[in-house]
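Below is how a single chain appears once it has passed through the pipeline. First comes the sequence as given, then the structure the pipeline wrote out for it. We keep one example in the README because the format questions we get most often are answered faster by looking than by reading.
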Amino acid sequence: GPSGGEVALEHKKKIQKQLEHLKKLRKSGEEQRSYGEEKAVSFLKQTEALKQRVQRKLEQVYYFLEQQEHFFVASLEDVGQMVGQIRKAYDTRVSQDIALLDALIGELEAKE
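Resulting structure:
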């Protein structure tokens, strides 16, 4: 049968094979981990870039809406002034008509 030395050698070889296998597994695990980290970092960068794009778009939209608001407020002020002028003109007209009627009434009363 095999001597004690041979048995020990066989045993040692088996252990070495297992060790190599375990080391390969460990290396592959480390590679997986660093690949995962790279992926996560790249994903975070993309997310950040997207966030900034959205913020810029929103700022443009806010700016546009602000411009529109100023424009509409100005338009409404113009309309308000116009309505004011029309009302003044109308008041003047009505006042003149009333004055005319007063004069007519005065003349008619004088004739009584």
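The mean pLDDT is 95.

See the next section for the split statistics.
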